[in-house]
Design brief:
The protein is α/β, with parallel strands linked by helices. The protein is built from 17 helices and eight strands. Helix 11 links the parallel strand 6 and strand 7. The structure holds hypoxanthine (HPA) and zinc ion (ZN).
Length: 324
């Protein structure tokens, strides 16, 4: 089973590139950029990764990324992730980035984008992995700030496939960003949104009905609304589920209690992803391995989820087929 899980072709659809910043890299970049970290050692950083909820993680996530300063830093971060993904036979990945978390500290949008984008281009050539970029708006910030960020992204439209919504979910419903997402779709972006991770099923409905999303990121709280579950099945709207993240952020008490198998067997288009692998204890293969073990998933279950993940990409039909 372990070899099967390592070797099966994968697509990853929910990975925040800033969440792939390993503590070792955090220290190396801090040194390179002359930044003082609040931690004395890599071990101290890892020891701090004990989260009570989404917000307690986000506080460390935003603090950690302060070491990212130059185009080269963003390149190195992205390249490191792509190497790991390729080694796990990820054939295609759709990567979130959070420009506002950088522009708010004086780093230019172009610095962030160019560094990440160049790594994606090199990966296609040198690692044989294809990658798309998804710009995420930070939902704890205003709709005006999101709109300004969208305007900044327009010159890079050809290299960004979609826009998404992340950060603190409770109290920041999708409806807050309806106009921004309207504008993004007019400009030709696909849309996705985090919803139903900590937030209620109504946020998932809003993401679908008001933001016209192609996928729901997380979405595990959909089970609380029977009509919603029925709709997600009928429409085959994909959920990008992140099992280890859900455990680390206390969405479920234990992997054995996760609802991913239930969702899959009900016929939802479920996929498995790593979210913030450096913070949550593993990349996509580790997520698959631990979830398979905890829930006793069959090879058929795994195969179905991998098929779902390719089906749920923004690749065109021929490209999808070529990667499976
Ligand atoms: N949820 C919301 N925002 C995030 C996450 C997440 O899981 N990871 C990084 N930003
Ligand atoms: Zn996420």
């Amino acid at each position: 089973m372990d070899t099967f899980l390592q070797q099966i072709p994968k697509a990853e659809l929910h990975i925040h590139i800033e969440g792939s910043l390993e503590p070792e890299t955090m220290f190396a970049l801090a040194k390179r950029n002359g930044i003082e970290l609040a931690y004395k050692s890599v071990q101290e950083v890892r020891d701090a990764y004990n989260f009570q909820n989404l917000q307690s993680f986000l506080d460390l996530y935003y603090a950690g990324m302060s070491v990212l300063q130059t185009q080269q830093d963003f390149y190195d971060l992205t390249w490191a992730y792509l190497q790991k993904a390729a080694a796990e036979n990820v054939r295609h990945t759709e990567i979130f980035f959070d420009p506002q978390a950088h522009t708010s500290r004086g780093i230019e949008f172009a610095t962030v984008h160019t560094g990440i984008h160049q790594a994606l281009q090199d990966a296609k050539e040198k690692l044989g992995i294809s990658a798309y970029l998804i710009l995420c708006f930070l939902r704890h910030l205003s709709a005006e700030s999101a709109m300004a960020t969208l305007e900044q992204a327009l010159p890079y439209k050809d290299t960004i496939v979609a826009v998404g919504l992340d950060s603190s979910e409770m109290g920041n419903p999708p409806s807050k960003f309806q106009r921004v997402f309207d504008r993004a779709r007019e400009a030709g972006f696909y849309t996705v949104a985090h919803a139903g991770e900590e937030g209620p099923p109504e946020y998932i409905w809003e993401a679908i009905k008001l933001l016209n999303v192609s996928r729901i990121d997380h979405g595990v709280r959909c089970v609380e609304d029977t009509q919603l579950v029925k709709y997600l099945i009928e429409q085959q709207i994909p959920l990008t589920v992140c099992p280890l993240s859900n455990i680390k952020l206390c969405v479920f008490d234990a992997l054995e209690k996760h609802n991913i198998k239930q969702l899959l067997h009900m016929g939802l288009c479920v996929t498995v992803n790593s979210d913030d692998p450096a913070y949550f204890g593993g990349y996509v293969a580790e997520n698959l391995q631990q979830t398979q073990q905890a829930l006793g998933l069959s090879q058929q279950d795994i195969y179905q989820m991998m098929k779902n993940s390719f089906q749920a990409t923004f690749l065109n039909p021929e490209e999808k087929q070529a990667r499976i």
